[in-house]
Amino acid sequence: MKTLKHKKLLAFGGFGLGVLLLTSCTANFCSPTDQSAMAYPYDQGVTVYVSKSEYEALKNDATTKKVIEFEESMSADLIANGLPTVAGAAYLDADGNVLNENVYKYVPLTVAEGEAPVFKLSTVSSNKYKGFLKDFVAAAEKAGYAVPSLYYYTAIDDYVLKAATTEYFVCKSSPDFIYATSADFYNRFPSFESELAGVLAGSEKIEFGDKVVVNPYFSADPDFADSEFEASQSILRQRGKVKFTGHKLQDNGSLDRPFCGHIETWDDELRAKALQGCDYLGAFDIPTVDYLNYYKAQISARVNAVRSCIATRDGYFGHYGTNADWRVSIESKDWGYAWKKGFLEGLLVYPVTWLLDTMAFSFDASLSGMGQIWALVIVTLIVRGLLLAVSWRSTVDNQKMQALQPEIAKLQQKYPNANTNQSDKQRLSQEQMMLYKRHGIKPFRQIIFMIIQFPVFISVWAGLQGSAALSTGEFLNMRLSDNINTILFNTTGTWYANTHGWWTALVLFILMAGSQVMTMVLPRLLAKKSTKNVSKLAKSQTNNTMKFMSYGLIIFTIIMGFFLPSAMGIYWLIGGLISMAQTLITQALMAKARKGKK
């Protein structure tokens, strides 16, 4: 008996592991450009950009004044050595001349009372630093890596701003322009000098109209989810991803686009200048190859976990960044791209997402949330309807087998030693097959349907998980891209007031779990009437394995549903309701057929 139980546990565990593995076996549609766009909201550096008037106003505070004056003194030496500055005007040419009078920068620092500022990563107080980058630096130090200086990070911020600005203006007139090195900014800025002079910081409460700003948010250094500028208006919002792109010409003439390729180029430039003997940039202030590889691995792990890159049109999608409030640009994917990813991707995954996207944009072009819900309902109905057409005979067979449980129980009573006696086992099997044949049941039909259903299940899962449209928008404050468990454990804000969709996620989880439980239990409840007169021994012999598998699947479904994105939870809820209706309709039709025969 123990051996049998162990086998059942192993079988159930193997089934669950197989589902988990297979549901992750479809390809990730995210391109390197998509991943670069996703990465920047998590690491926006340490530098804060403000207007000139705000910059001067900051000096009214004694502590901030001390910090800014210290950083300005550093910048004077840096300009003399041809290096990026830390504080002051954000846009300078190669000789240190100011190109824009509107945008200024500095790095907020925590200063102990009565002491001079200490320019180290441990003293940085900017909110944009308090996310991925701060956690990464702490992890790198703990792992024993040599962490670069704070100045290194400010220099990278300067490189990013100039690269993003160059791409922002030049790509409008030359879409095929490729930013390669920092020299491109100095070589190209004469072509957009007048436009650059009018760029604003984007941190003052004024009417911006169609003016171009630097900051992605209305606040210079937002401490939580804040209103963000349209991508067409903000330089860093649209082009900050240049930090994680790169372009290198290979010996064979091909163009390579390595992740963080620009950072590697900028590191080489800084390393060369470090040899000139600047006080603020030494050889040990620049990251080692091991540190950079560790950084790339960590930021890549963050974005590689994202699969919602199947977009049928170019646009800005998702919830990214420390505050999960930043939509990023995702490249559109066509059917040819999907076929290159794999057979299932082209045959099923992309068509499912295309249908969902088409419906979602038709209902609500802004993808605010409700349009995606209606799209989910329609796609679920279509997919389940097609599966029902294929599986109807298999479903009828299954219902007939439930109805025949009393007959099967009598056969098992006739051969009580079938579990140990091979001859009885063979006779029992033969009589069961004869019983099935008399009632037109073909058990093999169910196996065929499972073979068909499983890749469809995987593909629909991958299509919904990969949909860029579903990664955007909210429903009753519940983000469709967030996992249900993440929403339930989000205690920030007024959770009891459903600020982040806590109650919505709880109700969804209860309904989804309930529908899945009823989907599995309902056929057995309906068949119970027909087996109520069968002896308990016969019932246990007949139903023990089925009970074990049913309860095991219920537990597995509930646990798995807890970690689903909320959009998938809605899909499961709709699917469960359809399955329940299918069971009731099938039972009613079979009961009518039996009544007609009598």
Provide the structure class. mainly alpha
Helix content: 55-70%
Q: What about the largest sheet?
A: 3 strands, antiparallel
Number of helical elements? 21
Rg result: 31 Å
> How many individual domains?
2
* Fraction in beta strands: under 5%
Structural summary, described in words:
With 598 residues, the protein is mainly α. It has 2 domains: 38-304, no CATH class; 314-404 and 439-597, no CATH class. 57% of the residues lie in helices and 5% in strands. The chain has 21 helices and 9 strands. The protein has helices at residues 2-22, 32-39, 52-58, 62-80, 132-142, 150-173, 183-188, 193-197, 235-239, 261-274, 289-304, 335-341, 343-363, 370-403, 405-414, 422-438, 443-466, 484-488, 502-528, 536-562, 566-597, and strands spanning 48-51, 88-89, 103-106, 248-249, 255-256, 315-320, 326-330, 474-475, 478-479. The strands form 4 sheets. A 3-stranded antiparallel sheet has the order 1-3-2. Strand 6 (315-320) and strand 7 (326-330) form a beta hairpin. Helix 19 runs antiparallel to helix 20. Residues 1-8, 17-23 and 534-542 have low confidence and may be disordered.
